[in-house]
Amino acid sequence: MVATKLSLADFLSLDTGPETRCEFVDGKIVEMPPENEENVVIGGYLVAQFLEILPFEQVRQGKTELIVAGRVRIPDFMVLSEELVTALDGRSRSTITEDMPAPLLVVEVVSPGKVNEDRDYRYKRSDYAVRGIPEYWIVDLAKAKVTVLMLVDGLYEDQESQGEAVLTSPQFRGLRLTVAKVFSPKS
Fold it and tell me: What is the pTM of this model?
């Protein structure tokens, strides 16, 4: 028996409940497992760092959906433009639709496992480039590196950083952050 694929509209009409994190990929609901503690701490640390340089409403952690190429993704961390904050204001669901401006930055913290690595390094990279997201960071705990991808002529150019390297962003010049600190925010 073949499972029926859902449309994007069908998925968006569902109420998955406040405790369930689901992405929608190729007509299927993909339930996301709970984050491991290290990923949660890294995400929280990034929120704190960006709140030093941006207004509260522009910073999002793991709750806002992003529609891209007919898929629904839930990035670990995002920075929204003022225009995007306005577009989301008053909505019943925190979902960035394809007719809204793209986020300024999306960050994915790679969860352990080959499937997660492929999703963050390959599939989401393509999705986010198609969506026109100017900056995408891949934070990889297993490899102790952060890859900063900048959109240039529709494709991402990447810069891998490790150790005491300072993460730089042309969009967020006030950000002062080392890779080591991202992975060990408590120290």
Answer: 0.89
